Amino acid sequence: MAIKSVSKERIAKAMLEFDRDFRSRQEWLGWENNLAHRYALQAGDARYPAKKVVSLATGVAVNEFSGGRPTNSYLERRGYTVVALQRGEGEPVLRFTPGAVYDRKTEINGPFGGSLQSGIAASATYPVIFCSQAIVGSSTDILTVPKRERTFTPVKDNAGR
């Protein structure tokens, strides 16, 4: 979906809205370290989650348009600076215990990135897809690692790729 066109001033208002209404919320604390966020809108000394700011400015939900290059280009065309978030040492290791239960938001999406919108999420940092399910009567989604390992072999096409 194409991102609805708004002015540079509307984006500036959205950044103020983020500061006022979102920056101090639990789910946005430390957002720059969440691997689901690869880029930030840089304004002076402050950084903003690019896709969230565009969502606030346009009124379009974040799951209805693409992040990355489309969002970054959108902001840059309006005179804003977008920076890649640095990923330091100690990035998470993809290791899970068979039969264990994990909290999707804090133990999967937080360290490994990916969509918070559904129970199927591709990692932002690893070539894996996480599938989770909701716990009945709870607001928590879980990832259950199978008791036996499941390995999938990629299917090659006729050209051997």
How would you describe this protein?
By secondary structure, the chain is an alpha+beta fold. The chain has 2 domains: 8-84, no CATH class; 90-161, no CATH class. 25% of the residues lie in helices and 17% in strands. The chain contains 4 helices and 8 strands. The strands form 3 sheets. Strands 2-1-3 form a 3-stranded antiparallel sheet. Helix 1 packs across helix 2 (50-58). It is elongated and about 50 Å long. Mean pLDDT is 77; it is low at 147-157.
Mean pLDDT: 77
Shape: elongated
Task: Give the strand order of the largest sheet, numbering strands 1, 2, ... along the chain.
Answer: 2-1-3
Question: What is the first-to-last residue Cα distance?
Answer: 31 Å
The helix/strand class is alpha+beta
Helices, by number, come to 4
Whole-angstrom Rg: 18 Å
Beta content comes to: 15-25%
What is the percent of helical residues? Answer: 25-40%
Enumerate the spans where pLDDT stays under 50 for 5 or more consecutive residues. 147-157
Sheet with the most strands, sense and barrel status: 3 strands, antiparallel
Name its key features.
161 residues, alpha+beta, 4 helices, 3-stranded antiparallel beta sheet, single chain
Topology (SSEs and partners):
Blueprint: H1 8-21, E1 39-43, E2 46-49, H2 50-58, H3 69-77, E3 81-84, E4 101-103, H4 104-112, E5 120-122, E6 129-131, E7 133-134, E8 141-144
Helix pairs in contact: 1-2
Brief characterization of the structure:
The protein is 25% helix and 17% strand.
